[in-house]
């Protein structure tokens, strides 16, 4: 039996909704302090590597989650009422281009993380200090122990603009980022282990961070992190580069304690409550509520795939098998506010997240999990690259990839794209009608569309009444078709526009379920 973990989307940033792990002796043991690190010491990445190796050689102990009153049982409202004071941000007065706001512990963010600031080759631990925070209406003792932090926010100033939020690292191995002018949306995962697996999901967590103070003009921020979980320890190096898109280069090495046959790289989670493709919609004034429209993938064979996502009535799994993928990500294609009609949430301003592997990742599959959800604060769409080769206990394994948090991904199909899709009851019987709209410059070229046809396959079921409506002046083509499920409760659809038997569009994929 699967149990969905519903997590509130706090004002400081929510973590994903996942699949709860079963109890274990490690999970129920008393909390342990974070790995022993000197309060101040010379810093190098090799030091973090040695810490990870030493950690992996020992039995796992969970992070410290104990909190004194009045923070032990904070409500959501009390937690979001704790604010970092504006004048307490690290490096704000140093013209470094970046500043760091440490985040308080409490509510669902009870686990303690240590933050170290690296300057002039030395790392010093940032102590918790009461003066950094405004506690709102809460009564807080004058003297408090060193509580550590739940994470931190990265702020950035560019070309004399006002300081703006760039990224946030908080909760397990989750982090988020934005491009200029965007709202927080999709959440990245440092590592996924047994996501939606009947054996129970394991949530690795960052235990310590080392943040290097940038030199003036660097326009890059380097963050090192130590990861730990019952199965694996790891060391991460993130390089953040703001611009039209926010780039995060991630280099990681894993040190498994045990063999791990189900793990995920470059994972992300996002919310999709309802879309024009969903079978049933709640009583809601908005036409769509989602901070993801679909998953795009550029395969190792350079085929462009587009898979819209849906809020399902039952847990759904999809796997896109490939070798050495060129890229994949969570995309927002509907960028008009009229697509959502929500002047408060502004879903159209959520970031797209595009991932490019650095180096060859070999055989595996892009794994997509669609989780039933009744709330727009639940990140119910989860995806990650699952390598075919398992992690071997005691064997170090390294990966690297680049993330683009952006309005538009850097790599785009040189073909027509599936701009939108919707579905509903068909004209007769149990038929389901689908309308898929493709758009692109080549649809205005009569030579490219002279022998236009919609190549559609269904499995199981039967596609009927397939019609194409080309609008060259609008550079678009609508494909309308009906699906007879033939008594089945699902149907896999695959659609591509062709001309002279050659593809002129990306491949649109979808799974219909009853």
Structure description:
By secondary structure, this protein is mostly beta strands. The protein has 2 domains: 4-406, Beta-galactosidase, Chain A, domain 5, CATH 2.70.98.10; 417-513, Immunoglobulin-like (Sandwich), CATH 2.60.40.10. Helix content is 4%, strand content 42%. Strand 14 and strand 15 form a beta hairpin. The radius of gyration is 24 Å and the shape is globular. Mean pLDDT is 90; it is low at 1-31.
Question: How would you describe this structure in keywords?
Answer:
514 residues; mainly beta; Beta-galactosidase, Chain A, domain 5; Immunoglobulin-like; 2 domains; 16-stranded mixed beta sheet; ten-stranded antiparallel beta sheet; 36 strands; 42% strand; globular; disordered N terminus
Radius of gyration equals 24 Å
Q: Domains counted in the coordinates: how many?
A: 2
Q: How does the overall form come out from the CA principal axes?
A: globular
According to CATH, what is the topology of the largest domain? Beta-galactosidase, Chain A, domain 5
Largest sheet: 16 strands, mixed
Quaternary structure: single chain
Helix content: under 10%
Beta-strand percentage range: 35-45%
Report the strand count.
36
Mean pLDDT: 90
CATH class of the largest domain: Mainly Beta
Terminal-residue CA separation = 21 Å
CATH architecture of the largest domain: Distorted Sandwich
- Structural class by sheet pairing and helices: mainly beta
Number of helices: 3
Unreliable stretches (pLDDT < 50, length at least 5) are 1-31
Gist of the model:
The chain is built from three helices and 36 strands.
